Fold these 2 entries.
Entry 1:
Amino acid sequence: MSATAFGLCGAAAAGLGLYGLIIDPQPLRKLLAFNLLGAGAFVLFGVVSRRGAAATFSADPVPQALVITGMVVALAATALAVALLQRLFDAAGATALDAETMSAGRDARDP
Amino acid sequence: MTIVFALDCWIAVLVLAVASWTIMARGSFAAVVGFVAFGLLLTLVWVRLDAIDVALTEAAIGSGLTGALLLGAASRLPEAEFATQAQHSLLVPRVAAALLSAAVAGVLAGGVLLLPDPAPSLAPVADANAVATGLGNPVTNVLMAFRAMDTMLEKVVLVLALVGVWSLAQVRRSGAHPLPLHRPDRDSTLAFLARLLPPVGIVVGIYLLWEGADHPGGAFQGGAILAAMWLLVMMAGLGDAPSGSRGRLRLALICGPSVFLTIGLFGLWLGEAFLAYPAAYAKPLILAIEFAMTLTIALTLGLLVAAPRESAA
């Protein structure tokens, strides 16, 4: 029963993450929302794992191992995205995704 | 409805409240702080789901290191508020996005409610084959033996990500030289903690690695704690991040995947399969891989967070 409650919580967190990913114009906030979406998906794995309790185990170890691998890869991808953002900022003086803000940033940088 | 179930529901509500804050908060810095709190609450969820290994990973990597990385980014990158403000307040896209997200969340929730009963599980198979490796922790068994290919490729992904981060950094005259993250102030609280905690943290990290064979823990969790201790020292200005051009550092970075690959190929040579460990030596071989992996994980995670980020001087 608790597993189902956490499953619904994971589904809602994934939905919130997706909303932030679409609606927030700032790349850093999109990255944050993307991590939220991923965390929600990981919790769903956890629920499947908990329900798969069998033999002597209180949870199925295979989804758990997949989630651990996934978390490390998520960190690696986030670090790469942050490095890309930093490079964009160094090159253009802004980190927005629309042309207007980017040209404003460039003007502020090289008057 | 028992009191435990009520508490679980309360944790779920808190998780969602903090997740909403992360999305709705005005400033990026506040949003990242919300994300760290979200990760710590999620750690409780993982404990309640009887996945202690995942809870340790979530606390150390999902919340801690990702939080440190994003906090650094949020403090360096300015908020892009102009020109996007108008776009931000458009009602139709907001409603459409909310409807789409609600639909996706609804489908996922439906999937959770309609999961088959009895649930399909690989736990009996994992239990039946546990004798082959001699390890007591089923998650370590899956990571290091039954699905070793995933874990090996993931080590390669980590190193590739670091190569990507390094190549994006502005290059100074001789190789990328990372600068200290903070102005060194040797009398600050941070510097005090950076002297006090690492001896304890290093012991805890190695303990988690060693205990990972039979109890929750392992190379990922141990490596992440070692990386955190290293980051603490670098952030307090007590130690400099090493230059990426040093040969010995690069050798240590690839030692995890290469030991893994070598032992994997050794399995092929002995006639069984790629990554098949000879039964008599399974446990020592897995431990050897885990030690090499921990070194690589600690260094890679630390360097991913403390990567050179200053623009060319």
Note: Chain A is about 80% helix and 0% strand.
Entry 2:
Amino acid sequence: MKFKSTIFIGILMCAQFLSNAQTNALVERVRLKLNTVNDYTAEGVMKTDVSFIKASLGKVKVYYKKPNLIKVKKDGGISLLPKGGVSITMNSLLSTDQYIAIEAGKQLYKGKTLDVIKLVPTDDKLDWVISTLWIDPVEALVYKTFTTTKDNGSFEIAMDYGAYTSYGLPSKIVFGFNTKDYKLPNGITLEFGDEAPISKQKAMKNKKGTIEIAYSSYIINKGVSSSLF
Amino acid sequence: MWPIIQIETFKIFKRPRTYIAFGAIAALILVIQMGLKIDGESYAAFLMKDINNTLIVDGKVLNGYLICYILLQLLLVHVPLLVALIAADMISGEANLGTLRLLLTTPYSRTQWVLAKFIAASFYTILLLIWLAFLALFLSMWIFGTDDLFLMKSNYVVLIEGQDVFWRYVGAFVFASFSLLTVTALGFLMSSLANNSIGPIVATISAIVFFTILSTLNIPLFSAIKPYLFTTHMNNWKEFFDIKVTESNEAITGSILNVAKIKNSIIVLVVHIILFVSASVWIVRKKDILS
């Protein structure tokens, strides 16, 4: 009986040890903070900066619902969003605990010393392959992420915080992504004899695009209809 | 001069051939609108193939403003040919029928007759353009609704806010009126040179096709003459739909990228109109109507 109890306690201790190896206390703190948000509706201004797109600022509403439903809607009009990138926010990334967290040192970012933590998912069904988080250990806030997805390339997300720090929600979020070449044949656009200079065409290719949303307000945990997504 | 302008306008609209252009424009626009209404989504998906690799475009891309732009791109190249049908027959048609002598023996001077005919032909041209605007813009807005204009150019995309689009179409149609009046004036000049109807019509159409090809070819040899060809400037209505951006690539609402290009094109077209009409007046004044 004593022998059996010892083995049982030993197994429990091993499980606890393995569990500690796979998670990270700081990531857990971030996750707990984000878990206080069940849903939100945020208003903001979106700015699109892609080399081959000329677009003006537009008012947007962002809807989020646990675990990973997110929708960005322009206030009347056409909106442009990075393919697959918007869904990889902090709330959706840490909505699961199916990952291994690996500490990767410290880095100075915008005057703050941040912990760098790499997340590797253990659930094959997740969209992302690896994600690096730059976390402020004092406030438990993620300031930057770099995520590689299965189908939609890599995304860099930078965040600034303001009034909603206690919920871990940013006041500004910048999605960075790689753009592919854009070219439509002149036969389709009927733009003959008006070729842009080669230098200008080259400048428009292979550039990094960003979409920036500056949030003005959040309505948190007041319910968001599933039909919005 | 007002009575002879009225007479010439009446003569234009009395001919059945005048209505061919109105009918052709209506048929073309309605067919394209029907096609886009039924299968427009696949057309839009084809256009946005490259963009969809990187971005998700959320909203009503295929709206009345985009349909109008597509229609104008297709039709403003061909409407000059319809204008030539009437304008190039204004003087030569009279000469062919033998009524030119009768006209020129009235108390009105030859210059007055030529100007009256040109004004009547211009009235027809403007009416055709208004008809085009009504069908291409207003009918499309009614059928497809309105939204932001998501314009896919050869090398870049312009996203113009819905409330910033309509005035651009007004500007584009005003600009197009200068383009078509240049064709009217050219047809008129050709008409003053001949004594039969077909010759000037074919000559006007040939001149438009010839100069359009020169304008669209990117051969350095032709680059020197391109700025002086009216066909180079006729398509610059599109400039109303290009927008300025700030240093941080943020589009400036209400701006036009190249206002100077539009002004320059209008000046070139007006100079062509004046030259063609003046030459017509001079030729008709010197014309031998006795032989």
Note: The beta strands of chain B are 55-58, 149-152, 157-160.
